[in-house]
C-alpha cells in the first residue's frame, strides 16, 4: 500500500483528484492545502507527497522548503512528486532544488499521475517528457539571487527606498539592480519585468 | 440525463473532476480548456456549463463572454455555473455580468458541485453561501471602466506614453488616472495598485 499526501490549495479540485487516486487498490490518499500540509503533525508521513507547485504558498514560508524539510529528511521519509507546467520554469526549479524525485505536467492525465506515484514510491526518478523544455528554461534563470530578492520586494509594491532599507542597500544600488533585471528579462520597464517574472514563476 | 461541460484549463484537474462527476448516474460530462470550449462546434450544447473563473483566459477574448454568447443565447441554451473564490471578487462579478445562474466556491466539496449542477439544470439559482462576502465586494468595485482600462495596460507593462497613445489620452490624464487608481485601491504606488487589483481579480 502506498500512502499519498496530495498538496493542493483548492479543495474542490484536490478532493476530486484524491477521489480519483483513491480508486486505485494500492493507493491510500490524504489531501491538504499547503498551509495545513506543512503545519500538521502527521501521525505517520506518507510515502509520497504529490505537490502542486503553482500555488503562491508553495514558494512561501509554509511551502515546499518546510514540507520537504519535515517529510523528506526530518519527521518522515517521503519522496516528492511535483506537479508543474512547462511554461512556468520557476516552480519547476524550486521543486528540483528541494530534491523532488518525480515531475509531472499538470496537463498530464490522472492515469499518468498514478503511474508516476508508483514509480517514485519505488525510489525511481519519474520525469514527464512534456516538461523537458521547462527544465531547460529552469536551468537558465537569468537573475541572480540578489536580483530575485529585489524583484520580489518590487513585485509586492515596495518603493525603491523601501527595498533599499529592507536589504541594507543604497537607493542607487537598488536602481542598478532594477535596471539590470529589466535588461535581462527583456522587459520594457520595471512593471513589465515584474509581469514577465511572475509569468515564469520566478517571483 | 444532464449534459455537463466542465471548463477548466488544467487537464489533470479537470479530468479528475470530470471523472468524479461522471460517476453520478444522471450526469454526462465533457470537459475542455477555455480556449477549446469557446472555439469548438459542439454537436449539441450541454445543459450546464461549469466554468472555472480563475483562469486568465476566462476574462480573455475566448473567455466567458464568447462562451456565454454561444451557449446561453446563441447556439445552445445552456446555463452557467461559475466556480470562484470569495477572495477574488473580479471573476465573480464577470460571471454575474454574463448572467450565471449558479455560483460555487472552489473550496466547496465535489458533492456540493453535483448538487449545484442539478439545481441550475432545473433552472434554479444556486449560490454557495460561503461566497456571500465576495458578492458584497464584487458589487463594490471601486474603479471606473476607464480606470480599469488604464490599469490593465499598466499591468501588462505599458508605459504612460504607450497607455496614452493606446487610449487616445494625454500623458497627464493617464497620470491622473493612475494616481486615482492608487488612491482608491489604498496602494502605496502604481506597482502596488497592480498587485492589489490582480489579487482581487479586477485585471
From TrEMBL, chains A, B:
Stored Pfam families: GerE, Response_reg
UniProt modified residues of type 4-aspartylphosphate: 52
Organism superkingdom: Bacteria
GO molecular function: DNA binding
InterPro entries: CheY-like_superfamily (IPR011006), Sig_transdc_resp-reg_C-effctor (IPR016032), Sig_transdc_resp-reg_receiver (IPR001789), Tscrpt_reg_LuxR_C (IPR000792), WalR-like (IPR039420), WH-like_DNA-bd_sf (IPR036388)
Annotated keywords: DNA-binding, Phosphoprotein
UniProt domain HTH luxR-type: residue ranges: 136-201
Residue ranges constituting the Response regulatory domain according to the UniProt record: 3-121
GO BP term, pick one: phosphorelay signal transduction system
Gene3D superfamilies to which the protein is assigned, alphabetical: 3.40.50.2300, Winged helix-like DNA-binding domain superfamily/Winged helix DNA-binding domain
Identification of the protein by name: Helix-turn-helix transcriptional regulator
Organism encoding this protein: Streptomyces albireticuli
